[in-house]
Amino acid sequence: MFLYRECLLFLLGGGTYVGLEWLWRGFSHPSMFLLGGLCFRLIGLLRRHLPPLGTVLAGAAAITVLELLCGLLVNRALGWAVWDYSAQPGNLWGQICPLYTLLWIPLSALAAAADWFFTAYLLPEPRSQPRPKDP
Question: HSE on the CB side for 128, CA within 13 Å?
Answer without folding.
Answer: 4
